[in-house]
Amino acid sequence: MPLNICMVSGFFYPNIGGVETHIFELSRHLISLGHKVIIITHQYPKFQGVHYMLNGKLKVYYLPFPVMYRNCIFINLINLTVPLRTIFIDEEINIVHGHGSFSTMAQECMISANMLNLGMVFTEHSLHGFSDLGSFALNGIWKLTCGPCDNVLAVSNCQLLNVKHRLSSADDSSQKFQTLPNSIYPKLYKPPEFEHPNAKNTIIVVSRLTGRKGALLMVKTLEQVLNIYPEINVIIAGDGPCMVDVEELRENNHWLERIQLLGGVHPSEVRKVLGLGRIFLNCSLSEAFCMAILEAACAGLHVVTTNVGGIPEVLPDDDEICTLCEPSVNSMTAALIKAIDEVMAVSDENFNERRKKQHEIVKSLYTWEKIAVKIEKIYHGILEKKKAQRLMIGERLDRYLKRNYDSPTNCDYQATGVLFVLSVCFSLVIWFCLDFFDDRRSIKRVLGEKSPHKNVKC
Q: What is the set of domains in the chain, with CATH numbers?
């Protein structure tokens, strides 16, 4: 049965990253399966209103809300009430799928979806802590907004545990929490037919130069390795606040020719960059699922990476494909030295064969077609459950107050829950007024029911 699906997140094109790519590719493949998909995000420079992608098949709403901080709009549980309700009803949405707990828009859309009794899915894309003030506040709000969700998805088993702890869930047997990894297009990362002449002596880095991505760890590791191997060169594709540290490394050691800085690289150019070397270095300090190492392995590079977060789950346990090490300078240096010695010992012909074999292995592990089919089954399962047991509006509100409701997640903050419900009730009053004066957007229409009356209540 074809579904009408709405993806919601503050992270989307023209920004380019893991979340943005995940939303776009998942939407594209769901459309190919016969479903209707729309995307809701906030405005970007030069992007406001309704835009179309994929030759008009994918409709994107860039709502006119300015960004307050790191692609997040100001949240007050009311400002999105009218546009979300209008879009959900006009587009006859069945499933609302939010992405990224840091996105205030994705969290707020879960409230609107719950009030309309739509299917709700939330995918988390990052690991978050529990001790700092920002994470504490984020986790508290997420417990409230994400509690009524039908399914919560994580991109790795490590992140799944993180999500359960953040939502205070102790039910390991629940089908509400599932793992659904990211994927890539293997065709876009084919090994080069003819290897670059200097590839044997080149290390590739494709990463944002930030603290979380281990930019300082990378700088210290490269400093030790390049002093040991004068014939080794490095190509770094990426930009960020730690670019200054990389430039200091080049200038202080007079390595302007040995360390090439490409800056930010468009995704379409990543394969070309990966074809310039044989070793890929990743120094991330926190990762739920690292797309960069998957792309590098698919392109046939030997990956040297930290073993943090969900990284050990991404690639197969094969010494020829990947070397995992602790996130320390000594461990990274030792692993990189071992990889250089091994790679330099392999002839060009043998390494090209190894690239092709590695590409086929990685190609068989991750495809968007498989991911889209799995999530399609999740969507259908949610709607079947909704048909079997339809909750009244009072029961849906009660989800935010009960300490133990029919969901693995619990709202332990009763005072916060009361304030939260008051805000939701205020939004609901606005909906009643809109429904009274505009019956063509009747909530009954979302549920596929024909109303005999002009005005229909929630």
A: 4-183+369-446 (3.40.50.2000), 186-363 (3.40.50.2000)
Residue-wise pLDDT tens digits, 219-244: 999 999 999 999 999 999 999 899 99
Alpha-carbon span 156 to 291, nearest angstrom: 12
Residue in the structure block whose two tokens are 């739920």: 288
State the pLDDT at residue 450: 43
pLDDT by residue (tens digit) across 105-151? 888 888 888 888 889 999 998 887 777 777 777 777 787 778 788 89
**Cβ contact 61:90 at 8 Å:** no
Tell me the C-alpha distance between 19 and 26, whole Å.
11
Report residue 272 CA to chain centroid gap: 24
Distance between start and end Cα atoms, the chain? 26
CA–CA gap between residue 454 and residue 436 (Å, rounded):
9
Ranges 81-90, 116-125, 266-275: which has the least confidence: 81-90
Q: Can you give the pTM of this predicted structure?
A: 0.82
> d(Cα 117, Cα 95) in Å, to the nearest integer?
10
Measured CA distances, 72 to 108, 306, 427 (Å):
11, 29, 20
**How high is the mean pLDDT of the chain?**
83
To 5 degrees, how large is the angle CA 149–CA 19–CA 180?
Answer: 55
Rounded distance, CA 70 to CA 45, Å?
14
